[in-house]
Amino acid sequence: GPDFGYVHKEPLFEAVASLDSFGNVEVSPPVSVAGKDYPLGRILIGSSFPASAGRRMTGLVRDFLYAQRVQAPVELYSDWLAVGNINEFVTFVPTSDQKRFRMLLASPAACYRLFREKQKEGQGEATMFKGKGTALGYSGTDTKRVTINKVLSNDALAQQNQYVQRCIDWNRDILKKELGLLEEDIIDLPALFKLDKQGKAVPYFPNTVTMIVLARTLGIPKPFGPVAGGECCLERRIRALLEPLGLCCRFLEDVASYHGSLGEVRCSTNVQRRPFAFKWWHLAP
């Protein structure tokens, strides 16, 4: 259509992998870092751990992105994930304050804190995945009733999530440095992961960070967390974190359609964004 264009890059001699999916290419909001302005934000891409032989985005696309110097790319560590896309652990939401945005990070540590709170309140038998056990079968949830107590007593799961948290913290430090962020600019959303047979992380319940942002309305994967007091405690915590920023949280069921295939609603939806008001194509690096 009018005012739309695209670039087609097709590698001739390289195989493509899931890191070439465009959930592995994000752009930050406009930022200023160490006296340098990035009025179009910065490109974020996921890769393997430095100096490792892990998965990387195909060189053809990676080189093309690095050529976009006005949005100088930041490379993150995403190869610890089974799919390997950065949108599985980071996203951005708009705010009306001076910062104009917050960065959201998936956080196993925040999830364990929440579950321990609920356990201390006497809600340890609150059940997860109500009505969705079979659809979430790859997590083992179709064979037993999953409660807060069972999650907290699962030492193997705890160790796996400590590893995942270290991977996310590595990225947290990179993002703070490269986007000029403070801790107050970051919100940790409760998340849990488990490792597959290859030692890669998959979401334990629908991953709420993989949301779709529609101005101030957020389409968030419904997590089917422990129901305490008639409400999912994960949904309640997420609302408490995001609604004070003027955001509207809408929880969308995507278990059968996306989550069961290691995706969420954002993986096959897109949004037509309103372009910047200024002539952004005149910007020079």
TrEMBL record:
Domain called Protein-arginine deiminase C-terminal: residue spans: 1-282
Q: Give any Gene Ontology cellular component.
A: cytoplasm
User: Recorded GO terms, molecular function?
Assistant: calcium ion binding; histone arginine deiminase activity
Q: Per its UniProt record, what InterPro entries does this chain match? A: PAD, PAD_C
The lineage's top-level taxon is Eukaryota
Q: Which PANTHER family match?
A: PEPTIDYLARGININE DEIMINASE (PTHR10837), PROTEIN-ARGININE DEIMINASE TYPE-2 (PTHR10837:SF12)
Protein name, per record: PADI2 deiminase
Q: Which organism is it from?
A: Cnemophilus loriae (Loria's bird-of-paradise)
Gene designation per UniProt = Padi2_1
